Every structure is written in structure tokens, then in C-alpha cells.
Amino acid sequence: MAHIPRKRFGQNFLQDQGVIASIINAVDPHKEDAIVEIGPGLAALTIPLMARVPQLHVVEIDRDIVAHLSARYTPEQLVIHNCDALMFDFGALAREIAPGGRIKLVGNLPYNISTPLLFHLASFGDVIYDMHFMLQKEVVDRMVAEPGTTDYGRLSIMLQYRYLMDHIIDVPPESFDPPPKVDSAVVRMVPYDVLPHPAKDEEHLRNLVQTAFAQRRKTIRNNLKGIANDEVLAAVGIEPSMRPENVSVAQYVALSNALKN
């Protein structure tokens, strides 16, 4: 297929067979798995995934790619959902194709929508078994970052609150056509069956973390002025002079819960 990559869709097509094999091995598909691929593109991951499962579902926004895939594969092999992944109801699809079970998500995600898409997918954690995504390396570094590092922030906390994260491999630009201007990486995300640090109000936690990181160079005391005084911070093990990137996920949850009380 002679397809011109569309910049507005953030298209960079994976072509490195070694990287493709590493991703498929990490996903470890079994014939009983219900797998959904986001952004199949030119089918670099689609073809080896279809070889492992009886039927694969894909979510693709580009109508030219949809037409190509529809002409090449039967609906029994490949079910194509022509829509924007940011608006797609993965919960409804999971209930349809994996009743009583969970789906596995795979994708080389468009870098221009990766962060909002990750937050969109967070709302479907109860129907997702695991996720393997190719993303900009800078984003993956932030996703898996530990407290006390420069990459640790709102994205790290809100994803680690819900998922066990694992940085799988780094992928250089030459693995794609056209090569992106940045390095890439593959991350595995596994939703917790039981949250290790459950928040009483997740919306409150999200707002609290966002406020805490409004000005990274200021202390947690200054950023949360009027929200949490020194006594409340100390009660959950947070030194008021700490910077927001030094506060752990567990401490943010404990602070949110204390404020809700």
C-alpha cells in the first residue's frame, strides 16, 4: 500500500522486524485473548497479532487505511472500528467481545494524542487486562518516573495510582517510516485488581495533584496554601518544605483522603 503518512494523525509507521517481534513477545498473545489494537496503520503489528488470535479488533481513524485493511482482510479475521480512539467506548467493546473477562490493548499510539488517550483509557481499567503501547520515550520516562526525579509529575502519579508500569524497550527513530524526530519506547501497563492506595474521591485526588504541580519549583506548602496547612501535611508524612516531585503516590492519596475527612 502506497500510503502517504498524515501529519495531522501523527503517523509514523513501524517497520523494524526486530522491534515488532519484541513487542509481540511482550504482549504474549494467546488464542483465547480478546485483543484490540489502536492505530493499526500499515499492519506491522496487526499481521503477527492476527496470526496468534482467531479475530482481532482495531480502532483506526484514517479512512484510507480502513479501506486498505477492509480490502485485505475478512471481518472474521479483522473487525475494524473507524473512529477516534479518544471518543471510543472500550468498555462497551469489552463487554461485547470478552463477556465476563477483559481485553488486551496494543498500539503504536500517535504521539500528538498520547497523554489525553492514556487518561481516557484510565476510565476503562476494570475491563482491561493489560496494555502495551509505543509512545514517545519522553512520555514513557514520565509515566514510569519515581519520586525525586525530574520526570516525576502529574502523569506519573495518576497512572501509577491505577497501573503497574514497566518500561519494556527503547526504539530509535530509524525503526519507523518516516522516522520521527524523537526516540520512542514501549511501556506495559497492568491495571491493579485492588488499588494499593485507594482514594476516597479520585476527582479530588486529580485536582489536588494538579494544584500541587502548578509550580514545580515551589514547595508543597506554597502550592497547597489555603488547601492543606502544615499540620495536615505532617500528619500524612509530608514535610511542608518538600517539593511536589518528592511526594509519593501513597502520600498524595493519604493527603487527599485526609482533606476529604
From TrEMBL:
Name of one Pfam family that matches: RrnaAD
Catalysed reactions listed for this entry: adenosine(1518)/adenosine(1519) in 16S rRNA + 4 S-adenosyl-L-methionine = N(6)-dimethyladenosine(1518)/N(6)-dimethyladenosine(1519) in 16S rRNA + 4 S-adenosyl-L-homocysteine + 4 H(+)
CC terms in the record's Gene Ontology section: cytosol
Cellular localization per UniProt: Cytoplasm
Keywords, comma-separated and alphabetical: Cytoplasm, Methyltransferase, RNA-binding, rRNA processing, S-adenosyl-L-methionine, Transferase
Listed PROSITE patterns: RRNA_A_DIMETH, SAM_RNA_A_N6_MT
Xref: InterPro entries: KsgA/Erm, rRNA_Ade_diMease-like_C, rRNA_Ade_Mease_Trfase_CS, rRNA_Ade_methylase_Trfase_N, rRNA_adenine_dimethylase, SAM-dependent_MTases_sf
Binding site for S-adenosyl-L-methionine: N12, L14, G39, E60, D84, N108
Domain of life according to the entry: Bacteria
Enzyme Commission identifier(s): 2.1.1.182
Main location: cytoplasm
Keyword Mitochondrion: no
Residue ranges of every copy of the Ribosomal RNA adenine methylase transferase N-terminal domain listed in the record: 19-193
One example GO MF annotation: RNA binding
Family membership: Belongs to the class I-like SAM-binding methyltransferase superfamily. rRNA adenine N(6)-methyltransferase family. RsmA subfamily.
Role noted for this protein: Specifically dimethylates two adjacent adenosines (A1518 and A1519) in the loop of a conserved hairpin near the 3'-end of 16S rRNA in the 30S particle. May play a critical role in biogenesis of 30S subunits.
PANTHER family referenced in this protein's UniProt entry, alphabetically: DIMETHYLADENOSINE TRANSFERASE, DIMETHYLADENOSINE TRANSFERASE-RELATED
Protein name in the entry: Ribosomal RNA small subunit methyltransferase A
Origin species: Chitinibacter fontanus
